[in-house]
Specification:
By secondary structure, the chain is mostly helical. Helices cover 72% and strands 1% of the residues. It has 22 helices and two strands. The N terminus is likely disordered.
Length: 497
């Protein structure tokens, strides 16, 4: 065992060893074309929300007309934010999205404080936000997938079945993400088409109802509108939350074929497409359901399907299951690249930047995410956790806009294959500030103290293990060796020394 460990360590360090033998092959490959990049964005953005609980914008806006305006404006803001990320992704050419942008823009400003924003970003995304998000999405998938078999079960047994189903689904998506990027692409492309079909089924049902002349709910227009700063702000906040995921393609820039073209083009296709789907799906819902029904039923699309689709109503729960599984798999795919990039940059354990020598996937990073997500599934009640963690999203988006403006000054001569007009990131920055402050002002609660506490904990981890490098070297060496053997992984040839 000791001899094998020394041999493997020598192979990692020796120029003529395993790393150089595989050369440029020991790194993530560019395997996502335009169609796959579009489907990745669709996969992350279209989850269960538009099927199960799309009514928050209606509840806060008070009327059909204002609600549809909110959904449209939210789509436009998301598109502007995504195009700003496209500039950052193409000028730097690195995976990791916000993590890579913060490190490049702020990393050299100060020895201690400069790298801290990128570390905190990775800390929140990798350890809390994304695995908790995957856990909630995959539990929603399990709930809908096993619904026909658990109707007669008691609540405790039903929850146990949901958790077992969630862990099974997590195992399958982890297997896919460890096995092959090509396998992920194939599965995601199929699921992406199925998601669009499910959305079109809802829209088609709405067109059928409207064609029959059932427009009473839609004709109410602006009736009941809550034209107040607080109401409109909360409606916009809920709308933008439904669109989250527009930055997903920039998380995997290093795996996009011809990113200078396909990153901005995939965003320009996917986000407007999703905006149109969301707006017309809401029109369909509101053509059938009243305001009170929209804001009270547990699953809007299921109720809609029961009333409109007849024998084909089973398509809605099936659509929710497909949407949630595809979304969870895509979120996991993306966050493993954040973990991989952060480990490569020295902000996570280096072993999580290692690549499987046969499959060329970041297998250790995928396994780590599966492990953390499993813990969240077993714990179960993590809604408060994801509420406080999700507050960081628009904070990070705003900081990314600052990074874009900083890089335009500090790296003005660097080629920019794609460039957004300066007012665009400035506008998105203002929106991000607004959405970061709004929840605290509207509903000050202990969860924001929890957020601050988690940041403080992250600063402590960064100071001890990253800045001062106080790590248990012997144990890490043993752990690294174990992970390498389990996942047949070696350092990538493009790692940062």
């Amino acid at each position: 065992m000791a001899t094998q460990e020394k041999s493997l360590e020598k192979a990692d360090k020796d120029e003529n060893g395993l790393t150089s033998k595989h050369g440029s092959e020991v790194k993530l490959k560019r395997e996502l074309g335009l169609f796959s990049a579009v489907n990745l964005i669709l996969g992350v953005m279209i989850g269960s929300g538009i099927f199960v609980s799309p009514s928050s914008a209606l509840q806060y806006s008070g009327s059909v007309a204002v609600c549809l305006i909110i959904w449209t404006v939210s789509g436009v803001i998301s598109l502007l934010g995504a195009l700003s990320f496209a500039e950052l992704g193409t000028v730097l050419g690195e995976s990791g999205a916000e993590y890579a942008y913060f490190r490049e823009a702020f990393g050299k400003m100060h020895k201690f404080w400069g790298p801290l924003p990128s570390f905190i970003c990775a800390w929140i995304y990798v350890v809390i936000l994304r695995p908790a998000e995957v856990a909630i999405i995959v539990m929603t998938f399990a709930e809908y997938a096993i619904q026909p078999f658990t109707r007669e079960l008691e609540t405790d047994y039903k929850m146990m079945a949901i958790k077992l189903g969630s862990l099974s689904a997590l195992f399958i998506m982890t297997y896919i993400n460890i096995t092959s990027v090509k396998l992920f692409v194939r599965v995601q492309n199929i699921f992406g088409v199925c998601k669009i079909f499910a959305c079109l089924v809802v829209i088609g049902g709405g067109i059928y109802v409207i064609a029959k002349g059932n427009t009473d709910h839609l004709e109410k227009g602006f009736e009941g509108s809550k034209i107040s700063a607080g109401g409109l702000s909360l409606a916009l906040y809920s709308g933008l939350w439904a669109y989250d995921g527009w930055s997903s393609v920039t998380v995997v820039t290093e795996e996009i074929i011809n990113p200078a073209v396909n990153v901005p083009l995939s965003i320009s296709i996917a986000v407007p497409l999703i905006t149109a789907l969301y707006v017309f799906m809401n029109v369909a819902y509101m053509s059938v359901l009243s305001f009170d029904e929209m804001t009270s039923v547990p699953a809007v699309a299921v109720t809609f399907g029961d009333r409109v689709l007849g024998p084909a109503s089973f398509l809605i729960p099936l659509g929710v299951a497909i949407a949630t599984f595809g979304c969870a798999m895509s979120v996991q795919f993306g966050v493993t690249r954040v973990c991989y990039t952060a480990a490569r940059g020295g902000h996570m354990l280096e072993v999580f930047s290692f690549v499987n020598v046969k499959r060329l996937t970041p297998a250790p990073a995928v396994a780590l995410q599966a492990l953390i997500t499993s813990v969240f599934i077993i714990v179960g009640n993590i809604s408060t956790l994801i509420e406080f963690a999700s507050w960081f999203l628009w904070f990070f988006y705003g900081l990314a806009m600052v990074a874009l403006l900083v890089l335009r000054r500090t790296q003005a001569d660097k080629p920019r294959p794609y460039r957004v007009p300066t007012p665009v990131p400035c506008f998105v920055l203002l929106i991000a500030i607004f959405l970061s402050v709004l929840p605290i002002v509207h509903d000050p609660s202990i969860k924001y103290l929890m957020a601050i506490g988690f940041i403080v904990l992250g600063v402590g981890v960064y100071t001890l293990f990253v800045y001062y490098k106080k790590t248990p070297t012997y144990l890490l060496r043993k752990f690294t060796f174990l992970v390498q053997v389990l996942f047949e992984s070696v350092p990538p040839s493009n790692r940062e020394d």
